[in-house]
Specification:
By secondary structure, the chain is an alpha/beta fold. The protein has 3 helices and 8 strands; from the N terminus they run E-E-E-E-H-E-H-E-H-E-E. The chain has one domain: Phosphohistidine domain (Glucose Oxidase, domain 1). It is 20% helix and 31% strand. The chain is globular and about 40 Å long.
């Protein structure tokens, strides 16, 4: 099996380091529509419906929902060890950013467009928010 590492610069929003399997959402997300016991998205109209975001690096356009439901949804996931390990967001919104920082989840933005063109579910990603870099490890056979 061959591996290829691609490094991208990013902008630190909430610090920390994490690594894990990528899960890519084409829709904004409200953590209140994620089952806190399984980490699975339960919104039938969401691109990740039925998929788990638990312990993965979540790549998403933005958050949605009020501060109460967004923060409580992420809190419930974190208390059940089902929260994402890190988040890469295209369009940060205050509610999602504050929720991630409170839950101590690394969150970054301002990633080169090429990142979004090459990334796919199951790629391995290392997010180093403190040093403002993302490493994507692509595996091929």
């Amino acid at each position: 099996m061959n591996t290829e590492k691609v490094v991208f610069k990013c902008h630190k929003i909430g610090g920390g380091k994490a690594e894990g399997e990528a899960i890519v959402s084409s829709d904004d997300i409200c953590f209140y529509v994620v089952d806190p016991k399984t980490g699975k998205v339960i919104d039938k109209n969401h691109s990740l419906q039925g998929k788990s975001i638990a312990n993965k690096v979540l790549i998403l356009p933005s958050g949605k929902g009020s501060s109460v439901v967004q923060a409580d949804g992420l809190y419930q996931l974190a208390m059940n060890n089902m929260a994402p390990k890190a988040m890469i967001i295209e369009h940060p919104d205050t509610v999602l950013v504050v929720s991630a920082i409170i839950m101590d989840i690394p969150i970054v933005d301002k990633v080169d467009r090429k990142f979004y063109e090459i990334i796919s579910d199951h790629d391995w990603i290392e997010v180093d928010a403190d040093n403002e870099k993302i490493t994507v490890i692509k595996r091929s056979s």
